[in-house]
Amino acid sequence: MQESRTPLDAVDKALLIELQKNAQATAQELSERLNLSASQIGRRRQRLEECGLIQGYRARLDPGRLGLDVQAFVQVQLATHGAEQGASFTSLLRTRAEITSAWTMTGEADYLLRVYCPDLTSLNRLIHQVLLAHPSVARVHSQIVMDQPKADAPLPVG
Q: How far is 93 from 140, CA to CA, in rounded Å?
């Protein structure tokens, strides 16, 4: 599933590192940090966007300030593994805002979901009334996050 690798020189790598720290940095600010002109920074950034290496820019929000006080990882095991069942379950995942990311996995669980809910009641409702109610789901195992000693980090560029 790996895309073709984009060739990067040292300046591209440094630019990507800086953009992961602060995607709102202006071309002028980046040019000062990387010792290039703002126009060179702008062209490099545009090239990295056009080739798909930079997929977009997002604001990182504080879940607690949004009232999303429960974060959990939910493992889902399907009862059947046909293409139709997988597509149906994947479609369900896309309809639920509280499921912020999902991965297909090797091992006992077929899916790993990252979930944010306002409270335990909401998490319980998601698990029992949504996930377990899906006809393809055999088993769900949830783990509630107590603390996150390392925040989601930038990708290692190098």
A: 14
pLDDT tens, position by position, 21-37? 999 999 999 999 999 99
* Distance, C-alpha 63 to centroid of its chain: 14
134 shares a domain with 98: yes
* Tokens coding 81: 């593994």
What backbone torsions phi and psi does residue 77 show, to the nearest 5 degrees?
-110, 125
Tell me which residue range forms the domain holding 87: 64-144
pLDDT digits (tens, 9 = 90+) for 146-158: 999 999 999 999 7
Number of folded domains that form the chain: 2
134: which residues sit within 8 A by CB, 6+ positions away? 88, 89, 92
Are 26 and 70 members of one domain? no
